[in-house]
Amino acid sequence: MRRDAVREYLASALWAMPTCAVVVAIIAGAGLSAVQLDTTSPFAVLLFQGTSDDARNLLIGIASTMVTVIAVVLGLTVVALQLASTQFSPRLLRNFLRDIPNQVTLSAFVATFAYSTAGLYTVGIAAGQRTQDYPRLAVSGALLLLFVSMVMLVFFAHHLSHSIQVDQVMKGVEKATLKVIARSFVPGDPGIRMPDPPPGATALLVPQSGYVQAFHAEALVEVLASRGLTALMVPMIGRHVVAGSPLAWVWETTGERVRPLVPDGGTELRRALAQSVRIGYERTLEQDVAFGIRQLADVASKALSPAINDPYTANQAVDHLGSILAALSLRQHGPQVVADAQGTVRLHVPGRDFAYLVDLALGQVRRYGANEPRVVRALLRVCRELVWFGDAAHHAVVRRYVETLMSDVTRLVAQPADREPLLAEGAALLQAFDVADGTSDAGDAGS
């Protein structure tokens, strides 16, 4: 858990990769300074041909140029972050900080600066005196880094202009969310009934306020099994918890009675819980599918606000949300139970159901855009695509959403010329769900 937390932090730390680049540049400079090439060597063409004063002036010029370039790059990055925060959603800032091309570009610039500045200690100076001998290959390396930095500057301008485009932003969120679904999603069981903590159960308290970022049950289940205990997790992934509130309930059932833990019996459990649950000050996409959906829903909601009034951007966000909902329709949602090696259920974990995820993705868009026919058609288009995914239970959730949407259309769209085609399209979509579920039932009966 600690290793994953460090990896997650470093991925969004804008200083981590540039710091490593500075260290590598200084080591490379020291290594090249020790290389002496003979004038008869075939690599002699790589050597800088000027005097030591020329080489020193070159390094000073490169270092000063890089300072200016770094200032420009950081300024442009801040502008991009501010634009993304105000126009799209403040929850997208973390995606920009995790952008690898931005980190690589900044690393190239600071590496060139560090390489050139470090060379000033050795080029043209020896024991405090001027000298004509200097590491010519190392100076040639500074020239090479200068050309690399210029190429990276052009690439950075290209990448930045594309990265703040709304299409690129939303596609990035969709890809990241689908990756979470493919790698980290744990299927639930809608039929599981979460137990209530019995009287006498012991509460394991939240150590610090924040958001539940990740959950790995192995360490906790192992301790629960060794002591014959049962536990119930209180919050779901992505929920905010307050220090001192229950994070989990633990009890030991002996016959008809629930035995409380001995006074020091919770120490090992608290340690295992700390190794299993990570709480941070922000939500992350590591295991939180709902956070990716929230980002796209925020973009759609802001686009439909009176200040921006951009229905087409909302339609695009709905299209990306449709791809995520289609992937979620192929999986079961709800609470989970975790058993030990002997098959005994030791841990109950709450989970979001499909109805919650559909409302999170499309509910705000329906409430803010039900009076705009273009937005309604986009919502109906996504729901129509979901006919081909999931089972009857998933279809029932989408069907209820369509019925609510049609009720809003009837109430909010004033012009019959706008309202009637939408109602007809909605009625046809509901019929398509009936046909799909009927076909599914017939296929199940035949098999």
Radius of gyration: 30 Å
Structural class: alpha+beta
Mean pLDDT: 87
Low-confidence stretches: 440-447
Provide the succession of SSEs.
HHHHHEEHHEEHEEEEHEHHEEHHHH
Q: Number of helical runs?
A: 15
| Percentage of residues in strands | 5-15%
Shape: flat
**What is the end-to-end distance?**
45 Å
Fraction of residues in H or I helices: 55-70%
Question: What's the main sheet like?
Answer: 6 strands, mixed
Tally of strands = 11
What would you note in describing this structure?
The protein is an alpha+beta fold. Among the domains are: about 10-165, no CATH class; about 290-335 and about 355-445. Helices cover about 60% and strands about 10% of the residues. It contains 15 helices and eleven strands. A hairpin with a 2-residue loop joins strand 1 (about 125) and strand 2 (about 130). It is flat, with a radius of gyration of 30 Å. Residues about 440-445 have low confidence and may be disordered. This is Membrane protein.
List its salient traits.
single chain; 447 residues; alpha+beta; 6-stranded mixed β-sheet; 3-stranded antiparallel β-sheet; 11 strands
List the topology elements:
Elements: H1 2-11, H2 16-33, H3 52-88, H4 93-97, H5 100-119, E1 125-126, E2 129-130, H6 136-163, H7 166-184, E3 202-205, E4 210-215, H8 218-227, E5 230-233, E6 240-241, E7 246-254, E8 257-259, H9 266-276, E9 277-280, H10 289-303, H11 311-329, E10 336-339, E11 345-349, H12 354-369, H13 373-385, H14 392-412, H15 416-446
Helix pairs in contact: 2-5, 2-6, 3-5, 3-6, 5-6, 7-10, 7-11, 8-9, 10-11, 10-12, 11-12, 11-13, 12-13, 12-14, 13-15, 14-15
